[in-house]
C-alpha cells in the first residue's frame, strides 16, 4: 500500500470536513436567532444571526472554490469557468 497517498486523501478529507462543520454551526446559529425571536418579549439576536451568516457563507464559498480549483486542474469544467489566458484578452 502507498502510505503517502492515504495521508493526502486524509488531508483532503479534513479540508472538506472542517468547513462543512463550521457551515453546520452557522446554520444552527441562524436557526437559533430566528426561533428565539419568535418568542414573545424577546429581542432579535442580530449578532447571532450575522455570525451565523458569516460562518455559513465563508465555508460554503471555500468548498465551492476548492471544488472549482480541483475540477479546473482536471479540465472538467465548462469553458466559461476556465481561466482565460492573458494573451487572449489583448485584442
UniProtKB/TrEMBL annotation:
Cited InterPro entries: Uncharacterised_YqzF (IPR020138)
Domain of life per record: Bacteria
Listed transmembrane segments: 12-30, 50-68
A Pfam family hit: DUF2627
Keywords tagged on the record: Membrane, Transmembrane, Transmembrane helix
UniProt protein name: DUF2627 domain-containing protein
Organism: Brevibacillus aydinogluensis
Lineage: Bacteria, Bacillati, Bacillota, Bacilli, Bacillales
